[in-house]
From TrEMBL:
It comes from Callithrix jacchus. Gene3D superfamilies: Trypsin-like serine proteases. It is an enzyme of class 3 (hydrolase). GO terms for biological process: establishment of skin barrier; proteolysis. This is pancreatic elastase II. PANTHER family: CHYMOTRYPSIN-LIKE ELASTASE FAMILY MEMBER (PTHR24257), CHYMOTRYPSIN-LIKE ELASTASE FAMILY MEMBER 2B (PTHR24257:SF19). Its main location: secreted. The keyword Ribosomal protein does not apply. The keyword Kinase does not apply. It catalyses: Preferential cleavage: Leu-|-Xaa, Met-|-Xaa and Phe-|-Xaa. Hydrolyzes elastin. GO terms for molecular function: serine-type endopeptidase activity. Residues 1-16 form the signal peptide. CDD domains: Tryp_SPc.
Amino acid sequence: MIRTLLLTALVAGALGCGDPAYPPNVSRVVGGEDARPNSWPWQASLQYSSSGQWRHTCGGFLIANNWVLTAAHCISSSRTYRVVLGRQNLSTEETGSLAVKVSTIVVHKEWNSSQLSKGNDIAMLKLANPVSLTNKIQLACLPPAGTILPNNYPCYVTGWGRLKTNGAAPDILQQGRLLVVDYATCSSSGWWGSTVKTNMICAGGDGVISSCNGDSGGPLNCHVAGGHWEVHGIVSFGSSLGCNYYHKPSVFTRVSNYIDWINS
Ligand SMILES: *[C@@H]1O[C@H](CO)[C@@H](O)[C@H](O)[C@H]1NC(C)=O
Ligand SMILES: *[C@@H]1O[C@H](CO)[C@@H](O)[C@H](O)[C@H]1NC(C)=O
Ligand SMILES: *[C@@H]1O[C@H](CO)[C@@H](O)[C@H](O)[C@H]1NC(C)=O
């Protein structure tokens, strides 16, 4: 028993992921709230260059010191991208924050933008330079391959997306508590039906909190046994009826389905 515990602790320490220096304020606040500064240190802002300015378009998260994971639908082959890490307020320079150019983009080969409901909405961004990990920039942990979270498991979606349908985009990173909706429920009629596939994970759908435009590509963070955070989902799509429509939870790419793809 003791040996097992020690081994677990050593492995977690060696991975050095999912364990923020500034732990997030977890709460049951409904509707989204400002995140504690630097408490989701793997959160990235994906930005593209437009007439000399960098614009936030999507979220993402750091999985190695030179790789960021995001959603495939965030990527347009004609654009130039950079990734901003260690940031709380997108509208201001912050010490400890940095911007890194993206050198290579790997979009999942089975992604098809005309068939969003087939899934595979995942892309990897290779950074032009590896970043140094600090107490404000840390790696996300990914779940073991095949992990399925049970219905109602609490997780947090984070991003700089709009707080409500057609609302203003916030400066400050937002977090929202969402409960996982299992595949059986999410794919039932009255919910998403056959639009949702097993390579996706649903969370939310209470009609109050959800991810919204601009959160795309960002992480669904779930606290797991062992005391660390794992990213189980990548924000993929929501309902065109609105950002937090009843029984239309946010739909995420299920990260645990893509561990082999990520590793290769
Ligand atoms: C986080 O929690 C601490 C302690 O409860 C509180 O002082 C702080 O204001 C909270 N920060 C945010 C951004 O909610
Ligand atoms: C974020 O930064 C901008 C620009 O400095 C500032 O105007 C704004 O008040 C900041 N937002 C918050 C919530 O501190
Ligand atoms: C993507 O899906 C569309 C619509 O179903 C199809 O016509 C097209 O051939 C697909 N593209 C690829 C590259 O598979």
